[in-house]
Amino acid sequence: LAGGIILGVALWLRHDSQTTNILYLQLGDKQAPNTFYVGIYILIAVGAVMMFVGFLGCYGAIQESQCLLGTFFTCLVILFACEVAAGIWGFVNKDQIAKDVKQFYDQAFQQALMAESETNNGKAVVKTFHETLDCCGPDNAIGSVTHLWRDDLCPKKEPSLKRLLEPSNCHKKIDELFSGKLYLIGIAAIVVAVIMIFEMILSMVLCCGIRNSSVY
């Protein structure tokens, strides 16, 4: 069940409209950075393997097989080590993910403002960012007033006066998007880790109980 929950959360994050709209963009020959998906794929793999390993543990407990329970314990140790490694990797790279996406957006924004922007898809990339995240412009002076002179780039969902008083730059929105998603991944990983620790303890207790009962 835990494996199924983790798999479901990972698949939801993988197919979430906000991240897929942004991370599948292409600016000329350059693809949007998809480092974020590495953590998602790890969660998908862990969830799928946990479902199989969980079945192995249940079957081993029903059959009272020390071999199956020992295999179950070994698989849990390996999964736990992989999850710890993935967690460390995610913590180290959490700021880099948003930074790479912001750099990609800035490049597209600069191309969209240039005269030759019509010859590439910079304008389309920028509009996708603006419509998906409901923002307009980068975190600088040019971005804060972009909506006043480039209405073709910004989503027309709010009055211009409100945008002027409360500018919503895309750098802030990108940070909020990925910090929120990584927060969910972190919660899921902690829940899985706690469950796996209990599984390892209980599987060893059961295995030892079966071994001791076979003596009598």
In short:
The chain has one domain (1-214): Cd81 Antigen, Extracellular Domain, Chain: A (Orthogonal Bundle), CATH 1.10.1450.10.
Task: Describe the sheet with the most strands.
Answer: 2 strands, antiparallel
Write down the Rg.
Answer: 24 Å
User: What structural category do the secondary elements indicate?
Assistant: mainly alpha
Q: CATH class, anyone? A: Mainly Alpha
The overall pLDDT average reads 77
Shape assignment: elongated
Number of domains: 1
Number of strand elements: 2
Poorly predicted runs of 5 or more residues? none
Taken as a percent bin, the fraction of beta residues is under 5%
Q: What is the terminal separation in angstroms?
A: 35 Å
Proportion of helical residues: over 70%
CATH topology: Cd81 Antigen, Extracellular Domain, Chain: A
Number of helices: 9
Instruction: Sketch the topology as an H/E string, one letter per element.
Output: HHEEHHHHHHH
User: What's the CATH architecture name?
Assistant: Orthogonal Bundle
Secondary structure elements and their pairing?
Blueprint: H1 2-14, H2 17-23, E1 26-27, E2 30-31, H3 36-63, H4 66-113, H5 122-133, H6 141-144, H7 146-149, H8 160-165, H9 170-213
Antiparallel strand pairs: 1-2
